Amino acid sequence: MPNPERSAQKKAHEIFFAGRTLFIVSLFYLLLGCVSFFYEIVFLFWFLTGLCLIPVIVCDLIFLLIPGDRLRTEREIPSSLAQGEPAHVKLLINRAGVLLPFSIRLYDLYPENFTLQTVYRKNSDLMSAPAFPAKLKRKDFSKSQPLVFEYTLIPEERGPWHFSGTEFILGSPLRFWQLRVTHDTFSKGRTYPNFKQMARGIDIKGNPEKGEVKQIRKRGCGLEFESLRDYQEGDSIRSIDWRATSRNCQLDGRQKLIVRNYQEEQDQQILLIIDSGYRLPDFHFDSALEAVLLLSYVALKHGDSIAAASFGARDLWIPPRKGMSAYTSLMNGLYDLHSTPVPSSPFSAMENALNKLHRRSFIILISNFREEDGESLSWILPRINQRHLLLMVSFREIEAEKLAFPKNDHIMKTDEEILEAAAARSYLANRRRLYRKWEHSGLLVLETSPAHISSALINKYLSVKKSGKL
């Protein structure tokens, strides 16, 4: 993660406005004036009160103008944040003069898609209360050291963000006037998917049906020759290199068995295409994007090159690259990608992939395929299958499954419930029929739930590499 960004104050914007005390006094004075219309003695008191209030209000304003804005602010925050991970913000507030306003309230204008936590720290004191507005006292400021104000934000959405400034509300001694000062302490950065969890995810072992990633034993099961080594108990006899064995003898004259050590093939090309249109709502799309990034991480670790594309709301193409440095480019290209309810065409995505790929690739298309896609993709899928290996990834229709196969204790009583169940079963049957048709034609099909797509996709990728289909 990059070093924290420090945003210094450039200029300040000041706006004067009446305080709450001035409104209360003015309202009381107005009511007193209404009463004085009927009583002469009250009129005299009202008149004298007005003569006394005017210089007091003016002097209160002068005492606010004399110190004015005597504060300078800086903000420190990392420019790269992870979605859902706490981000610590530090404000350094310096006094720029001898006199300070009588009351100071602090607001930091953080982005709307951030959630503010209720615990903050002022200098070394830990507070448990809403961070803003923060009431600062004049005794908190030192002439030599800045006031350190720290609080925590949680970024809720992926994408770019920026702080629009820092705001102070300065009060006069009698609270008749207030001065709003906005400091242009701008900060900007990006919120990425939670790549810390992705990096930890590849170490998970267990049952893939429960959303876990199973590890495939690589020694001796690959297709690419790596090296020769001594025979060890448990090695397959088929892996013995008899020519190398014949050239090696032990000191006692016996033959020393030498086996070939294989590794999975590397420098293969993977293209990940994700649908950003109406087919994938927000929750499905976020799960799919996380799976794409996690699979990219695993594939780059295996020495393959990765390309990425999207269609629908945004047409995106990231050319293939290999090496872990490519993961940074991939994150920068996909971190702000979102789905919107606009039409999306898998056919166009496949056609663009054919035009841009110049070598055999493992194409993974993530969308939500339905019965009508069988006809629209019928003539381009054989062309893809001749030159590349295609995996069609689709999400399970959980709601349709609940309608089609209700729980045992639920008895369908009305005609409407029976018709809904029949329509849902017909819809699911047509989907399964389409997927079986694609599988019989040589395509790979994966249907999974949003919660398990990452592990299911990685397991499929590892299985393909082990099988040598690519």
Please describe what this structure looks like.
- This protein has helices at 20-36, 40-65, 195-201, 242-246, 282-301, 325-334, 346-356, 373-376, 380-387, 398-404, 415-440, 453-467; strands at residues 4-8, 12-18, 71-78, 80-82, 87-95, 103-109, 114-122, 125-128, 134-136, 147-155, 159-163, 165-171, 177-183, 187-192, 224-230, 258-263, 269-275, 305-311, 316-321, 361-367, 389-395, 444-448.
- The chain is α+β, with helices and mostly antiparallel strands.
- The protein folds into three domains: 4-14 and 68-192, Gamma-adaptin ear (GAE) domain (Immunoglobulin-like), CATH 2.60.40; 224-263, no CATH class; 269-467, Rossmann fold.
- Strands 1-3-5-10-7-8 form a six-stranded antiparallel β-sheet, with no helix packed on it. Strands 19-18-17-20-21-22 form a six-stranded mixed β-sheet, sandwiched between helices.
- It is elongated, with a radius of gyration of 34 Å.
- The model is unreliable at 201-213 and 215-222 (pLDDT under 50).
